[in-house]
Amino acid sequence: MTSAVRAPRSLVVAGAVVFLVAVGLVLMMVVRPSSASPSGSGVFAPAESSADVGFARDMSIHHQQAVEMAFIVRDRTDDEDVRRLGYDIINTQANQRGMMLGWLETWGRPKSSDRPPMEWMGHTVTPRSDDSLMPGMATDEQLERLRAAEGRAADVLFLRLMTVHHRAGADMALAAAGAAGTDEIRNLAAGMARAQESETALMADMLKARGARP
């Protein structure tokens, strides 16, 4: 004769809490800005032309290059401070990029578009043939120089390129923080601007310590 195994009460309660938290997270992802339109999945999403969608799409591209540069310098330097900064950029910006791409998916918006970059900011940027798609992004030639550099030369070039990258990224984030219609983008963009401004100041000190100018 067999008997049912009853789960401890604490596990039942814990399971219920996890379920409620999951439901809460799903509800938090449902946005209702004035510019929202149905996404086709029951979730109301920002319009295609909104700052929310434009920022998520453009900053995902911007972040992707920052992560790429950080991976490059990680393998070109023995400077622990530079490696640590690169590691922080990889983890932070890859995570933020994942969040933005996830929101685009949830909103039913494509992750890429034929629309000009930064159109959501009220002005457009014409992509150049060197793949410098937006302000602050490194050119193909600059990336090749970084891949070829070693030691201090790699450190200085990385810090200079990332300083320019961060300044432009912070400007874009500040614009999104003021124009977005969703809490998700407003909060992420505001925090992103603060973090990139702080890292820009840090990189200025790191360049100075290495006898170089930004």
Describe the structure in brief.
The chain is mainly α. It has helices at residues 9-28, 51-74, 80-107, 140-148, 151-179, 183-209; strands at residues 36-38, 44-46. It has 6 helices and 2 strands.
Describe the structure.
The chain has 214 residues and is mostly helical. The chain contains six helices and two strands, in the order αββααααα. It has a two-stranded antiparallel ribbon. α5 (151-179) packs antiparallel against α6 (183-209). The model is unreliable at 1-35 (pLDDT under 50).
Beginning-to-end CA distance, first to last residue:
78 Å
- Which range best describes the helical content: under 10%, 10-25%, 25-40%, 40-55%, 55-70% or over 70%? 55-70%
Total of DSSP H or I helical runs spanning 4+ residues: 6
Apparent shape = elongated
Encode the helix/strand succession as letters. HEEHHHHH
Radius of gyration: 21 Å
Largest sheet: 2 strands, antiparallel
Question: Averaging pLDDT over every residue, what do you get?
Answer: 84
Q: Proportion of β residues? A: under 5%
Computed structural class: mainly alpha
- Given as residue ranges, the uncertain stretches (5+ residues, pLDDT < 50) are 1-35
Strand order of the largest sheet: 1-2
Count every beta strand, where a strand is a DSSP E run of 2 or more residues: 2
